[in-house]
Amino acid sequence: MLKIFFAFFKIGLFTFGGGYSMIPLIHFYAVDKFKWIGEEEFIDIIAIAESTPGPIAINSATYVGYKTNGVKGSIAATVGVVLPSLMIIIIIAAFLMQFKDNQWVEYAFMGIRIGVSVMIFNAAIRIYKKLNKNILSYILIAFGFITIYFKLVPIVFVILIGGVIGIVSHVFIHKKEVNGDV
Amino acid sequence: MFSLLFKLFYTFFKIGVFTFGGGYAMIPLITEEVMKNNWVESTDVLLDFIAIAESTPGAFAINIATFIGFEQANVIGAIAATLGVVLPSFIIILIIAKAFTKFATNKYVIGFLAGVRPVVPGIIFSVGVAFILKSVFKIEGIEFGTFTLEWGSILILAVIFAISQKWKKVHPIYLVAISGVLGLLIYGVL
């Protein structure tokens, strides 16, 4: 139990940028070092983490924890992966509040805001490149862009509408293709 | 106090439920919710939080939830928001691990994700464009009528864009550091 907690604590502590940068470290602890799960199960976990909502770090921590020690294990792993962030961010936030009105900090952040905006823009391009492209996906990309840029529909509904269109298209219209895939 | 904590928990729970595809996919929904609740005075402050959450250890989702929760209601707020963003994944994965291991090959799940996946970059793209327009040209939303042309901001945009195109795998922390130094030099020194 404690081992699970500390392994995921380290995973939380030593990965910057979250998500996908965590996968190699999870593999190292869960598969190579402690042999909590096998290679195939690891691949399954990544597939499941990618097809369920929420951060991949939490998804995989919960799954690996559960496989090793049931619900208790999943709690230990999840708390372990969350705790470093929680502590570090609280310290930084408390520290930063004192410098909030410092002119030099503001200058730096004026530059950083541009940098972060570009990073978000690039993330969209990166995800776009990984998509299977067909007419429907282009329509859905445009749908997502227009509805959110012009604030026409709340994001939650845009996502749900996309999901429903996906189900209708794959399960009911292109029945054979989906059966072929699965 | 209690209603604020519940609001933090509930809001981040919702964000946790509707985030498909990792950290960046969360940013549009966080922006929408945080602005709606007036938790930051402007998207500028939110971008500062995002920058810090990207350059500190741990999952982006946890970092940003902790940050906003802490700003609103101190340590207890940080815990409420973090618990909110973690719980949906935790519950869903427990159910799948216990009873539904064929989840990733279920045809309804595949269909749902096939529809959601293209929508996500569209949404992120719209937020990225809006943030660039705002931070570089001071264009707010769809108010294209007024804009400022500031060579310094355009230079930072060009440099960061060029670096991230040249070295696709460059870590976010370097981009944050470089844009911060450029901000100091251009706005502060020059």
Question: Could you describe the 3D structure shown?
Answer:
The complex is a heterodimer of chains A (182) and B (190). Chain A has helices at 2-14, 23-33, 39-51, 56-98, 103-129, 135-149, 155-173, 175-181. Chain A is mainly α and 182 residues long. Chain A has two domains: 2-98, no CATH class; 103-181, no CATH class. In chain A, helix 1 crosses helix 4 (56-98) and helix 6 (135-149) runs antiparallel to helix 7. Chain A is flat. The model of chain A is unreliable at 178-182 (pLDDT under 50). By secondary structure, chain B is mainly α. Chain B has two domains: 2-140, no CATH class; 149-190, no CATH class. Chain B has seven helices and no strands. Chain B has helices spanning 2-17, 23-36, 43-55, 60-99, 107-137, 151-166, 172-189. In chain B, helix 1 (2-17) packs antiparallel against helix 2 (23-36), helix 3 crosses helix 4 and helix 6 (151-166) packs antiparallel against helix 7 (172-189). Chain B is globular. Chain B starts with a helix and ends with a helix. The mean pLDDT of chain B is 91. Classes of the chains: A mainly alpha (182), B mainly alpha (190). At the A-B interface, helix 1, helix 3, helix 4, helix 5 and helix 6 of A face helix 1, helix 2, helix 3, helix 4 and helix 5 of B.
Short description:
The complex is a heterodimer of chains A (182) and B (190). Chain A has 182 residues and is mainly α. In chain A, 81% of the residues lie in helices and 0% in strands.
